[in-house]
Amino acid sequence: MEITGKALILACSAIGAGTAMIAGIGPGIGQGFAAGKGAEAVGKQPEAQGDIIKTMLLGAAVAETTGIYGLVVALILLFANPLVNML
Amino acid sequence: MNTEFGSKKIFEFFFDKPIHLPILGDQPSFYITETVINTWIIMILLVVVSIILTRNMKLVPEGKQNVAEILVGLLTNLTGSSMGKDKLGFAPYMGTLMIFLVCSNLWGLTGMRPPTADLNTTFALSILTFFMIHGFAIKRKGVFGWIKGTFFEPVAVMAPLNLISEIATPVSLAFRLFGNIVGGMIIMALIYNALGSILGSVLPIPIFMLAIPVPLHGYFDIFAGVLQAFIFTMLTMVFVSMAMDD
After folding, report:
1. Where do the structural domains in chain A lie, given as residue ranges?
2. Is the pLDDT of residue A25 over 80?
3. What is the distance in angstroms between the Cα of B216 and the nearest Cα belonging to chain A?
């Protein structure tokens, strides 16, 4: 069985897309940490709950950024592969 | 919906394909994308709603004028509390940005393509933020103060790194919004197609067709959409006020 160059690139791109999503670990840890600290802060100062939730969501969404970069890289590898045309 | 789901169809989701409008005969003269059409629809909607809400305004508000006043007050307070009281002049821009982003992110609920699921929209908005950061920093601190405050902090050796981080700011803003919205859109499309093929033949339980996509729409469209609109506006306010202050 012979493997063409294009098939090899497509297979490696699929593996690369899967590998890029390992970036999802980071936001998971970061958002969990932010939520834990937010719960702690609400426990200490229940009257400041509104501000705490606002700050926590902002931090969680910024922590999510690296995961979204991984997702964008995976999507580009799958649907807009720049490498196939280089053959 | 079509149960066949090749990579071609997702490709159309990822890239908004231009539609050719033959205005000048057969010449390939004018291309228009779904994003442009939906942005125009949202713009017209917002203009019409704001004209309706602010018509016949009275000193003592009643009815629809209350809605407009609550909205404007909320956005003005948010701007004032996160940028400082001396920068309340930014409130109209930030409020418009937030309302536009919320509407465009929720546009996915109608089944049409949200305008923010296109890199052109998000990059346009984040480049606006980029020029606001540096323009207002120059206006407030002067050219030399801007160069010193932006590039030579904390030491002059850091200048190349600071340059990269200044360029990374709009890129990260644009990709955060785009990635969130397009990711949700693709996941929803995958789920609808999976439901179409599984529930249609293997497991015909009709209640699942409603019970599975509705909570996911709630998360990906409503929660993530509103949160990302808030984040984009909030980060724009924080970046602009930080560049002006220090």
Report:
1. 5-86
2. yes
3. 18
